[in-house]
Amino acid sequence: MCKDLVSKSDPMCVTFVRPFGNTNWVEYHRTETVTNSHDPDFVSKVHMMYRFEEQQPIRFEIYDIDSSSTNLRDHQFLGWASCTLGQIISKGTVKLPLCSQGTESGDTKHGFLIVAAEELSSLKDEAIMTFSGQKLDKKDFFGKSDPFLEIFKATESGNYVLVHRTEVIKNTLNPVWKEVCIPVRKLCNGDYERSLKIVCYDWNSSGSHSLIGEFSTNVREMQDESLKQKVFTCVNPHYLARKKESYKGSGQITLNKFVLKPIYTFMDYIKGGTQINCTFAIDFTASNGPPYSSESLHYICPGRMNCYEQAIMSVGSIVEDYDSDKQFPVLGFGARLPPDGRVSHEFFVNFSTESPFCSRVQGVLEAYQNCIRYLRFTYLQIFILLKFFSPQVQLSGPTNFAPVIRHVSKFAASFADGSNYFILLIITDGVITDMAETSKAIVEASMLPMSVIIVGVGNADFEEMEKLDGDTVALSAGGRRATRDIVQFVPYDRCIHTGTAGIHPTEILAREVLAEIPYQFIEYMKMHGIVPKPPNTSSPFYLPPDLDMMVR
Fold it and tell me: N or C: fewer beta carbons within 10 Å in the chain?
């Protein structure tokens, strides 16, 4: 909606996006033209694919349509506004001041654009059901049967396609299968009358399974509360054709439970007010090299970011859209600190215990850069000034992760209600030296609302890091197994060397390290039975103009 335009006009809103890896704005969508209005409410909606791991900048331009020409240059430009898709989603509705062409700030005389985000409803329910069998046919010569179920849905052409297969229950005629969870979209395409065929087989090691029987039903029948006992006769069509009236069935299948539950998405929780908090942890061990050397991983070069700065920027620039106060703590580990020169594995990089937070991602970069400048000063002049000054901080070692993980865990434990979710970004160049303690800390943290991202920089052997990333084998420590996978490890060099021409390394890195966060987030909420709060329906959140998006 555009408000308070200078005079009545025939406005149209044009949406531009920056596709992944593209630095140029590309036209994406045009609304309809609203005639003779200075307060238009556009009916046409913009459909976009939301990706948490990308920044997804958006620019809106308003034109007064003066003719039937499709060339925007033939129409009067009224103003522009910009933001990111993440900002719209995190606030629900945003109010953007319109800027005139070439200006850097919004002006109320040009009006406002109000933008709201809404997730498309795509049958966001799942069916939860449990089945058991009674007196099924005996199929094995030396035993009973090894029954399992297959659930099929009817297609528009009248055929059936498989949507789920249960586990096999060995040597029984009265099996009880584990709970089955199937999205309604997958189960019946949202059509509760669509025919479902449930087939019971006896498992055989040869792969040629023996049919016990089958029955047909639909979601409407299965959720019918008037049917207290949902018992289905298992019918084998071959036996029915041969035995006819004398055939009484091949046992029974009982539907013991059927519940439809909503499937909540990452966007549901964000729109309900859940905050994403990010803590940065930076490796200050000696293996990074002296920061005054251009070979050092910590070398600060004006106009070119080092790998630590790129990792901070890639994650911070996205996460700050989901943090209302945009204040980030920055931890360091593996350095010797004054006054006694003891090695610390958990210190604030801005050296302030009273105010350890950095404002926005730019503040994080400045705190890191200031710390490195102290380090350069220390290394270059330590021999001259040692008698007069205590070094601010010195690179040391070893590489211990457990302290910074437990630091964030303490805060995450206070927000088990799902109102906040914590991300710890560890940037390191070394081989981890406290593997046992780190594994234990991660296992303990797997019950908390947090995720750990590890970015490996340099040429060290990161094999141990891969073990922490429990994608294939769940991490365990002290006899306990992680309740969920909360670690994502990404080697920095892989993002740089496998990148696509024209795509900035920070964009590739962000995609790699943040892709699993929504899944880990949802897994925590689902595991603890936390449902999202209703979206905030108060007045739109005001967003000032983004100067980085001014030029198109």
Answer: C
